[in-house]
Amino acid sequence: MIELDVAFRLDRGNFTLDVAFTAPGLGITGLFGRSGCGKTSILRCVAGLERAAGHCRLDGETWQDDAKGIFLKTHRRPIGYVFQEASLFAHLSVRDNLKYGMRRVPASEHQIAFDEVVDLLGIRQHLERAPSGLSGGERQRVSIARALLTSPRLLLMDEPLSALDHASKQDILPYLERLHDTLRIPVLYVSHAPDEVARLADRIVLMRDGQVQAIGSATEILSRLDLPLAQDTEASALIEGRVQSHDDNYDLTRVAIPGGTLTVGRLDQATESRIRLRIHARDVSIAIRKPETSSILNVLPARIVEMQEIDRSHLLVKLCTAGEPHPPLLARITRYSRDRLKLEPGQEVFAQVKAVALMD
Ligand SMILES: Nc1ncnc2c1ncn2[C@@H]1O[C@H](COP(=O)(O)OP(=O)(O)OP(=O)(O)O)[C@@H](O)[C@H]1O
């Protein structure tokens, strides 16, 4: 199993980066934290653009090891780097920008074909255009394609969506998800947007003041009440499911999840497809008896694991659903409701889920 293994220590006067973590060789590892906590510094150290003390290995290949006096220069590390702003050559067409990336590696080492990348990122119709004529989102897709065409063994993405407006972000996210599903290249993805991390990351490294505050699967980190992602207004839980059936009459889809079924607006996915759903805390309410007369379709038996007040009127409730492996759900309710329903940890309740979003 390919694995990224890093340990960096970097002193910059009033900022010290001191981190050590491993990331799996597949999927997206989100580096998440406030501005200035050291996310970009980690990417720069992995890329060899910054020289911290420590080590950096990918799949047993050492890019840096101070103990052994090893430090590979950036151009010798098989990485693709995508920045906030697309940095394309203005005088070259999109096609030539892409070819430029490809030429950086010998043909024998090409892992991904030109056409595959072009189609994956949906940029075929732009190939002969100049970068200046593209929208921000299109330019960023070209930058990602260019990075991929260098056949990297690790893709570093530093807030690739932060310079885009909301519509362009929504436009590009499905492409990033496709990359995730299609390519077997691990990605280190820096973001300070909880929404983006929840949508894309499999694993989250949560940073604070130059250190790793927590690390774990996205499901776990998103639902930990002691961590900032759960405190956010976008707080949500991820749940894995399987498309069970489609209801043509009502245009709905039934999704089997551990311990129950969710009925959602019709999904394009074929039956038996594995999918990831996101359920916002604000869309979950709690009932102590099974509601029989509600318009809400999704009612799941669950148990209260933990509760935490988030302000004077609201609290977050962490629930676990009935079936193995008991995926967590978050519910944002009022303190008043907690007192009225006399809710407490350990109690068996029903979670009413008002809305569910498909992640991939
Ligand atoms: N070249 C530099 N010289 C000195 N200090 C720097 C340099 N680059 C960054 N810093 C400082 O190091 C700290 C970490 O910066 P870094 O860019 O890694 O944070 P970040 O989490 O990526 O922030 P952001 O989300 O704003 O990009 C900050 O306090 C920053 O001011």
What would you say this structure looks like, in words?
The chain is of the alpha+beta class. It has 2 domains: 3-222, Rossmann fold; 236-358, RNA polymerase II/Efflux pump adaptor protein, barrel-sandwich hybrid domain (OB fold (Dihydrolipoamide Acetyltransferase, E2P)), CATH 2.40.50. It is 22% helix and 37% strand. The protein is built from 9 helices and 21 strands. A hairpin with a 2-residue loop joins strand 10 (203-208) and strand 11. It is globular and about 65 Å long.
Secondary structure elements and their pairing?
Elements: E1 3-11, E2 16-24, E3 28-32, H1 39-47, E4 53-58, E5 61-65, E6 70-71, E7 79-82, H2 94-103, H3 114-120, H4 136-148, E8 154-158, H5 166-182, E9 187-191, H6 194-200, E10 203-208, E11 211-217, H7 218-222, H8 228-231, E12 236-247, E13 252-257, E14 260-265, E15 274-280, E16 284-287, E17 298-309, E18 314-321, E19 328-334, H9 335-341, E20 348-353, E21 357-358
Parallel strand pairs: 3-9, 3-10, 7-8, 8-9
Antiparallel strand pairs: 1-2, 1-4, 4-5, 5-6, 10-11, 12-13, 12-15, 13-14, 15-21, 16-20, 17-18, 17-20, 18-19
Residues 12, 15, 33, 35-41, 192 line the site of adenosine-5'-triphosphate.
